[in-house]
Every structure is written in structure tokens, then in C-alpha cells.
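Quick one, T. Sequence first:
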Amino acid sequence: MDVTRHCKLCDHQKIDFKTGTYCGLTNRKPEFYGKCVNAKFDSKLDIEISDINIEYESVLKTKWRSYIYSITFLIIGTVALIFGSYLVLNLLAQSEYDYHYTRILGSFSALLTFGSILFIFPIATKYLSHYTNSFKLAKTKKESLDKILNLYGITYNIDITFPKKSSDDDIEVDLKIRR
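C-alpha cells:
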């Protein structure tokens, strides 16, 4: 585990663009295994716990919307693909239409078929992929935070209330930390 993750929560952390993260007590890079005996978790801890948990809960709130969008676009793409293929097969089976009608119908069927493959299906997978990647990242951050806090015997209960309309300023956080 990267020891600077501990430092991100610690009040002794100092950051220099030349050396990166270092300890304000020793003026050196963090050098410990497991946990730091000089760690002081006060002012930064509340903010980090709140931010990481808000990010995690925000991603969880988008789960069903992402699934619904993905399924909707998959259905639209499938219907467009089937209808476009049906038109192509219908045109090939019946060659008695006049040339102008056949050309317009053929162009429309090709547009439906290739449009669903090139545009609609990628949109469907985009929503699900974005949710999956965001969830994995937020979950990894939360698990890393919880693992570090567990090393130091710190637990917390957090209650996050999101407003009806989306705004980061109106999110209410009730955080209780136990050491």
C-alpha cells in the first residue's frame, strides 16, 4: 500500500512540488510500514471521509439511470437494426418496385442498419461503461480509506442527504467518528 495515502489524512503532511509528499515532523519522505506512529488525524479527516463517501454515494445514485439508458438504447438499436435488415431483405425479395422508390428505401434501410451499429449501440454501452468505471474508482477510494482508518482503530458512521435538485453545496453530511 502506498504510505502517502496515510499522509493524505494526516495533519502533519507537507507537499512540495520538488519532493512530493513529506512529513512535517521529520521533514523527510514517509518511511513506515503498516502504520505511522506519529499520525495525527484531525482537521483533514472529516473532509476526506465526507468527500470520498459523497463521491461513492453519488455514483450509486446513478446506477439505475445508467441501466435504464443502456437498455433503452439497446432496444432502440436492436429495433432499428431489425427493421433496417427487414427492409433490405424485402427489397431483395421484391424487385418490382420502381427504381426511385427502391433507391430511397435502400438508403433508409442502410442508414438504419449502420446507424444503429455505429451510433446507437455505442451510446448504449457508453452509459454502462461510464457507470462501471466511476463505481470501481469510487469503491476503490472508499475501501482504501476504510482500510487505512481500520489500521488506526478509527470507525465512522455517515449519513448523506442529497437535495432534490443536483447541487454540491446543498449536500448534507452527518458524520460521527469514533476512535
